[in-house]
Amino acid sequence: MSEKKMSSSRKHHLKSLMLSIAKDLLEEEEREREEERERYMKENCPAVSMPRSMQELQELCREIHHKIDVMDEERYDLDMKVNKSNKEIDDLKIKVQDLMGKFKKPVLRKVRMSADAMLKALLGSKHTVNMDLRANLKQVKKEVKEEDKELRDVGDWRKNIEDKAGMDGRKKMFEGEA
Questions:
Q1: H or E element: which one contains 3?
Q2: Computed from CA positions of residues 149, 153, 157, 161, in that sequence, does the dihedral angle turn out positive or negative?
Q3: Do 158 and 167 contact (CB within 8 A), yes or no?
Q4: Distance CA 171, CA 160 (A)
Q5: Of 68, 69, 51, 70, whose CA–CA distance to 60 is shortest?
Q6: CB pairs under 8 A, 24+ apart, for 140-149?
C-alpha cells in the first residue's frame, strides 16, 4: 500500500471531529454520574421528616448515630483491606525484583567498630562476655642477637658520627675493617 500524505485541512477536520465526539462522550458520562448519585442518595438517604415531639427527635438521633457507626465500621474495614492489599503488592514487587535479579545492592560504608561493640549490636543485651583478643595471644620469648647488642652498646649516635667525620674517621673505619 502506498501511503499518501494527508493535507493539513483534512487533518484539522478529523481532529475537530474527534474532539467533538470526545466532548459528547464526556458530557454523557457526567450526566450518568449525576443520575447515579441522585439514585444512590434517594436509596440511602431518604428525605428527613422533622419530628414533632422530643421523643421522635431522640429516636431520629439514635438512628443517625447508628448509621454513622455502621459507616465508620465499613470505612475501617475498607481501610484495612486497602492496607493489606498494598502490603501484598509491595511484597510481590520485591519477589519480582528478586526473581528478575535486577536488585541493586546498596553501597556499604566502612564502619569502625570494636569486636565488643559488634557483638553487642548483634546480640543486644545478651552480650556479657568481653572479647579481649590480646589475652588469647601466645607469649613468645624474644631472642636477642649479638648485632642488636652491638647497636645498643654504641650509645649516643652523635658521638659515633663525630668519630667517623672527616678523613680521620674514614681512616679509622678502614683500619678497623682490615
A1: none
A2: negative
A3: no
A4: 14
A5: 51
A6: none
Compute the distance between CA of residue 131 and CA of residue 120 in angstroms, rounded to an integer.
11
Tell me which residues of the chain have a pLDDT lower than 70: 1-2, 102-103, 125-136, 143-178
Nearest to 103 by CA among 91, 94, 113: 94
User: Whole-angstrom Cα distance, residue 176 to residue 162?
Assistant: 16
Q: What is the pLDDT at residue 67?
A: 92
- Could you report how far apart the first and last alpha carbons of the chain are, in Å? 108
Give me the pLDDT at residue 109, please.
81
User: What pLDDT score does 105 carry?
Assistant: 74
CA angle in degrees (0–180, nearest 5) for 85-88-93: 125
What are the contacts of 125-133 at 24+ separation with CB within 8 A? Answer: none
Which amino acid is located at 147 in the chain? E
What is the grid cell recorded at 47? 428525605
